[in-house]
Amino acid sequence: MGSSNLSDGPIRIPLELEGEHVGTTDYFFIKIGEAVPLKANDFNFDLESLPSTPLAVSERFGLVFVTHSSGFFVARIKDVMDSAKEYKKGSGSPIQQLSLVDISIGKVKILALSTDNSTVAASVSGDIRFFSVDNLLSKEVKQSFSCSLNDSSYVKDMRWITSSEKSFVVLSNVGKLYYGEVGVPLKDVMDSVDAEGKFVAVARMNVISILSAMFEERVSVSLSFRPGNSDSGANCHIKVDSIKWVRPDSIIIGSFQLTGDGKEENYLLQVIRSKDGEMIDVHSELIVQSFYDIYQGLFDDIVPYGCGPYLLLTYLEQCMTCSSGEKHRTVENEHSNNKAESELCYWSNSEI
Questions:
Q1: Which end of the chain is more exposed for a tag (fewer CB within 10 A), N or C?
Q2: Taking the domains of the chain in order of start, what are their residue ranges?
């Protein structure tokens, strides 16, 4: 498979399997009532600065955090569910009326809840503001801490470190990776990063690097891509959009072809799995399963190009199943009329 010595270069995965699209009736979802609007009056997000992670849910406190055009609301999940049922009867209240607090801090791109649910972080441009959940429950809107990137870039992605209650990593739109702790300024740890995962996988060009807690490279893996059906041909190159480290032995990567004129085409999903150990084990034998045509119909009039990460993915540990969606995705049928609708794809434990 490849040497465990990092000086030998990235590991090349010897076995690639093409993922199959198989229909299933094993899962079903029951919608609770009707959709609950954010505000009583219609409003639109700015298409040039759409939030990438507009929702966070705290099971511990029974709260939902949701962005709006100038900040975010905090509401109780039960109140929102009850309102959804009322909307089905023709009444109901929007999130704005149900909210415990309305935090007005500007256009929020990312909402991220700490692993212990004690702190919610909200990114606005290059700033990250932190709020105590206990204080929000008491309707105190004052932030507990804030930090900023050290240049004119903005926060593209942010993840709390699962092994720590107060530590996190931040990715800027220009590819810089930062390490942070609540109450401490950000530390610049790496340049030219395309996407980042939980702890800590990063992508640079077509190489995935797995880093230790001290941000030292432990394993690097070279990705391979089959050419897509782009009309732009040789002018295209592959760009990693998102990394999701769903289990110790499995990482899911979303990427797309970037054309010479800046268009994003042919979204690709890849599941990299270790057959006999954890991903961080340099002696593990790796397999990649690629889904080349999993998302069709990507349109920039729904989500403009350059507003990633686009991948929406959740790992359901109890079912050992992944569900995923893509923000550009449209479903064309007689009911949807080219509107953006959710389409979920699933992987069972036997596939990842």
A1: N
A2: 1-19+194-352, 44-157
93-125 confidence digits (pLDDT tens): 999 999 999 999 999 999 999 989 999 999 999
Contact predicate 149/166, CB 8 Å: no
Q: Which residues contact 286 (CB under 8 A, 6 or more apart)?
A: 1, 11, 13, 15, 221, 272, 273, 274, 275, 279
Residue 231: the pLDDT is 53
Paired tokens of 323? 């569900």
Beta-ladder partners of 145: 130
Amino acid letter at 222? S
Across 298-309, b (16+ Cβ under 10 Å) vs e yields beeebbebebbb
Could you tell me the two tokens for 212? 């230790």
Residue with tokens 């640079």: 204
Q: Two tokens at 65?
A: 């955090």
CATH superfamily assigned to domain 44-157: YVTN repeat-like/Quinoprotein amine dehydrogenase (2.130.10.10)
Report the residue count for the chain: 352
What distance in Å separates the CA atoms of residue 57 and residue 72, rounded to the nearest whole number?
13
Query: How far is Cα of residue 330 from the mean position of the Cα atoms in its chain?
Result: 19
Global pTM value: 0.74
Kindly give the parts of the chain with pLDDT less than 50.
Answer: 1-5, 7, 198, 232-233, 331-352
Closest to 184 in 3D by CA, of 156, 148, 140: 148
**Residue 121: strand pairing partners:** 112, 130
pLDDT (tens digit per residue) in 216-249: 788 888 877 765 555 544 556 778 888 888 787 8
Residue-wise pLDDT for 203-218, tens only, equals 877 788 888 767 778 8
- CA nearest 282: which of 222, 219, 221, 223? 219
